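Holo prediction. Input below; ligand is magnesium ion.
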Amino acid sequence: MSDDARTLRRPVTAAQLGIWVAQQLQPDSPLYNCGGYYEIDGPVDVDVLAEAVRRGVEETEALRSHFAEDTGPDHEPDGEPRLRQLVTPAGDRPLRVIDLRDTPDPEAAAHRWMAGEMARPFDLGRGPLSAQTLLRLADERSFYVHRYHHAVLDGFGQSVYTDRVAALYTALLAGQEPPASPFATLDRVVADEASYPDSRRRRQDRAYWLDRFTEVPDPITLADRTAGSTHSSLRRVRTLDPDLVSRLAALAEQSGVPWPALAIAATAALYQRMTGRTDFTFALPLAGRTGRTGLTTPSAMVNVLPIRVTPDPDRTFAELTADVARSLADVIRHQRFRGEDLVRELGLSGGRQARLGPTVNVMAFAGEPVFGDSPATVHPLSTGPVNDLKVNFYGSATSRGGIRLEFDADPALYREDELTAHQDRLVRVLEQVVADPSVLVDRVDVFVAGERERVLVGWNGESRVVREVSLPVLFGEQVVRTPDAVAVVAGGRSLTYRELDAWSNRVARWLIGRGVGAESFVGVVLPRSVELVVALLGVVKAGGAYVPVDAGSPAERVAQVLGDARPVLVIDDPSMLDVSGFSDAVVSDVDRRVGLSLSHPVYVVFTSGSTGRPKGVVVEHRSVGAYLVRAREVYGDAAGLSLLHSSVAFDLSVTGLYAPLVSGGCVVLAELDERAGEFGRPSFMKVTPSHLGLLEVLPAGVSASGMLVTGGEALVGEALDSWRSVHPGVVVVNAYGPTEATVNCTDFRIEPGEVVGSGAVPIGRPFWNTRAYVLDGALRPVPPGVAGELYVAGVVLARGYWGRADLTAERFVADPFGPAGVRMYRTGDVARWNADGQLVYVGRVDDQVK
Ligand code: AMP
Ligand code: MG
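Structure of the complex:
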């Protein structure tokens, strides 16, 4: 009989069809390669194993099949070719043996070889779609390696098959005739399944699933990034401590829940703590078998369905586990309903199982076959495609290898150190819940060693001894250094440092005469002009604080701000600054009504806030001085030409105006339009991310050539990339800060050529002498990757809100991590630390949907 005549034509299971279809989309991808190896501890008789494998393959149609699209007479009525599997006869010696005993490092060689094998794609149209190899590492140590395409076998099937080979081997080794094959033909397996699609059972299952998912929670993730879906995977396996394993077993026993429910509950607790979410799904691979044929015959029937978990932070872990156990029992009861069908019926887009969330797979069945007297432990190599993250638990409390926890991740989403940290966290969770199952989910600590210290101290702003100095002093020193340099240009006029200094000195003396001094305010409502700069400096030199109001704002707003601030005087006409009869000389404490102190206010900026009446933020000299000393050091390009287009009513302008004026730079006050580059190309400017689009359409000479500082709102990589592609040589700084923390308190510097990813660009780390905390609702720090409210402390903190003691007390609260009596500001922003120790802005607290 020819081989061809001996080829059997079999139908396929629903699982096989689903995988076959998915593989057709990426024919050369090893995505669906599966496999694992059994580490055999003890001697192996190679010939006996070869015979056992030969018999095993003969008994197992799945290992001998490949696929063909039927074009014969029995094609589907709609003309679509029908998928068949062709089962071919077994070869003579299906076990390949590779002897690595004489290689210098057999272990490493074995792993290299296996990695190479797993990366080789199969051709579904040509068999074989499975291979078995014995790697001999030493006389008493070998790896029995399986590799197969997911379309012919699944993990459950692999385990059933290997148990059979071990039984064959053991019998043959003992010279006994092995028990008869328990395996059925694939015809039988498929026939078993065939009654399901039209059954009442399926209708009930469908009703259960659609009822459970009238709305589907968004997929949950621990990833910091969004791009995904690479073909290789990042894996990390660790064996749980035997003591922990026995305590987990004891806990499962006491609470009367199966181990898989406990494992899923612990994983759910981790995700709850890491994301704050209380309703999400995990993808759960299920054997997909309910009948005896399926359970005893190696085949591909795996089904992936969601398990919905709703961990309430205010309930105990024990309660969560009981909930999960109930849900799991339901899922198992309804597990024959195909995941592909569910995803389609729910209208979930984004590829196979993309919307079901990370996978949690508890493989207690992954048995431990014994080959004669030599026991074996299974080690998975691949379980197919990884969507985000797979959390795999192998083994059980009674297995020889204990329980192994494997994380298998999409390398485009996770870095190795992040994956390690997440795995460590899950182990931390397991340790805590065995120690006290009545722990509230909210109280489960997900920090790993050293992390708390890192977020509170290590990544925080360093303490640095820096000169405490005020703006008038810094500016005065610069006047001495560069008296004849041009300091300010506006409306076709310009002033040198000497001229700006002299004029603002006269204005300061005039203001002092009008009663301006420490703790008094002067409203400044002037258009963009050199007078505007003269006025601001004049007020500050007098020892007062200015209240800048945009001259273009509605009269109502101007009146409201000035009404609240109750200034001594309002400068609302440039001609008011034509003051003569006052000395040009440096203004000192001798001239002032009260000596200038660093704790005197320097300006009061009214921020609209998202709700209610604008509030005046009172900022002191100490903070502005500290900001400028740092700006001068790290924003070197401010010593060149700076373009200031934003209104001085926003503290954003502090950077664009004073960083140059304390560095010898020249500030051009101009509208951001085609003519803004007239005075020369700026080396430095500060814009909000929404200006990037405008900068792109304006001539290149309007964009900063040295450093661009962005701030005020969220910056995303895509928008920045577009601008950077035209300006590749510019340093970009993403600066973050509320007015209450003096302009900015963290920043993130991007050098030319440095690649930024898509999505949120980090806001970086706190400045020196500044601290940032990401805290949960109970003011506890949260680990990297976890979003929490951002609090800021240190020299940058404003004094508070003008005339609003209540609001000040509410937003400026005691800093539990700093020295006694120190305050921190509650920003209302949500942020998280990324794995590099950079802060990432997430949104506003008010926008967070719980
Ligand atoms: P303001 O007090 O008017 O300066 O506004 C400060 C607010 O703007 C912050 O609390 C943030 O919500 C937002 N913000 C400032 N800088 C950034 C930034 N770099 N990224 C994201 N949001 C920012
Ligand atoms: Mg700001």
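The longest strand covers residues 823-833. That is the main takeaway for now.
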